[in-house]
Amino acid sequence: RNHVTVYGRTTIGEGSILFPGCVVGSDPQDLKYHGEDSETIVGREVRIHECVTVSKGTASGGMKTSIADHTLVMAYAHVGHDCHIGERVVIANNAQIAGHVVVGRKAIIGGMVGIHHFATIGELTIVSGMAGVRFDLPPYMMAEGTPAEPRNVNIIGCRRDGMSEEDIRLLRDVFKILYFD
Prior knowledge:
It is built from 2 helices and 21 strands. The protein is mostly beta strands.
């Protein structure tokens, strides 16, 4: 593709597509970064759309930023330094992920979401559009608001992932105890 910028020690897996205007492996937007030879790893069959930025790692964060296989990063999103994005994650347009964030497998980050440094988004968790994530979100949840809070269990996502109806029922019971009792 034309007009794609890939910096430094960046590995891009087979079948990945980088769209015009994206910048992958750039220096972190972090005052603690001092030119260390860190890296960026993009897995197989990842789609990084127009004007996305992905910063490489820092010495204080493990020297690596990674995006796992089959992930979709939509236009104008940012993946900060030292982030680790799991397999089959969807990051919607204009989502801004600060440094040191971990996003679990098959999570969905809605459009215009802001995620604060060091937050963890659990696997199969959906963060609704325009949410502000300040704290960790557990797996299997649907979260919204600012600050983002779990509002329900991601039942459809759990079913699609093969979770049994009994396990989903137990998960819903635990959710009610944790958030409504």
